[in-house]
């Protein structure tokens, strides 16, 4: 062991001579400072998304800090996110939103975010994201009967959404609801044939009875009264036909100054051929990634710091006896996975 330490130190020595002013150790992905930056970034991403669901942090992939001067840093973050069950228009705070489970066919988001930390205050300068569903093979391998995501223009999906909305509107005494967008749709074939859909809705200025007379005249409520909501529906096709619908209106939401008006980007639509909302539509700023390739040129830096920490660990190991099961410190990046890996 002593010989190994000496060897590592020998290898390290010339490096240290060649670099007189060693830069401060880079931030680790699980450091509290990195987590604080990620929290600001995720809140910004959700606040500026116009479609689909809120995303939650799964892992900090990488972080890089470029000092600009006293108390002024530029921070580049690479984040892995996972879709939650809260629609982007839902007033539920992200902390209370459940991450969509693997068995419901999870959707992952990848984001590059550029932040500035000025006198301790973090702000987002740019964000660039895209999101994609887990592969069908991945889901089926662990769960052969799981309902996979289906395309929004799938005939069965469209008929289920239409039937669900009609069902709700035919039973309610409240406002007649119109479809804003399909959030997701899953279809299961075995052991039963079941179609699951989720969609965002908005209240119109009509009651259901008034809509029956002339649906065309029913308009979405103006911005200062807007009332959005969300419906989930389950249609059993086989063994026996059944339809369950649940719609919740959020009530009028006064937009917070920090979040853009999310409703503005939501136009009633069925986008052809997609199975998930892509964060790219709301976050596509190349400035957010440090280089055009979006690769962090930190391999040298972090490799160095890993080596440094390893030497420290070995040196430490020689000095004090460790309890059985001593685990060496984790590499600084990527950070821990909070939910599951896809
Ligand atoms: C969010 O969760 C907290 C803690 O569990 C709870 O106190 C709070 O009422 C919840 N808020 C909403 C809007 O669900
Ligand atoms: C809803 O608004 C439209 C447009 O302003 C109007 O023409 C229509 O009469 C309204 N319907 C009801 C039931 O108030
Ligand atoms: C769904 O949209 C895609 C892309 O536009 C198209 O190729 C496909 O035929 C459509 N499917 C149905 C069932 O309409």
Automatic annotation (TrEMBL):
Gene3D superfamilies: 3.10.450.10. The keyword DNA damage does not apply. Keywords: Disulfide bond, Glycoprotein, Repeat, Secreted, Signal. Its main location: secreted. It is found in: Secreted. SMART domains: CY. PROSITE patterns: CYSTATIN_FETUIN_A, FETUIN_1, FETUIN_2. Residues 1-18 form the signal peptide. One of its GO terms (molecular function) is cysteine-type endopeptidase inhibitor activity. It holds the Pfam family Cystatin. GO terms for cellular component: blood microparticle; extracellular matrix. Residues 21-130, 141-250 form the Cystatin fetuin-A-type domain. PANTHER family: ALPHA-2-HS-GLYCOPROTEIN, FETUIN. This is Alpha-2-HS-glycoprotein. It comes from Leptosomus discolor.
